[in-house]
User: Fold this.
Amino acid sequence: MKVRAMLTRKLLSLFVAGCFAAAAWGQAPATPFAGKWSGSWTNSQGAGGASSLELTEDANGNFTAVWDGVALSGARVNANTIELRGRSNDVASYQIGFSI
Assistant:
């Protein structure tokens, strides 16, 4: 779980930077936000691996995403906040919030 949390922070940093560019000055973007990110990670115990995130937003501010094979969905809470939720194999639940 620590590994996922660390990876989440790294991917969130990339995502937040992209969202800020798309939604400058706290307004909803004129064009829906979408993107793909991938990279590698290493935790403090030497474990590592590859990770990816694919995210799309529809015209109503609803999001769908796939993060390392886990389907996520969510929406804009407001112009500056996005929340996503998902579940992997009925074992783990994920909730991710972004503030831009």
Helices lie at 2-22.
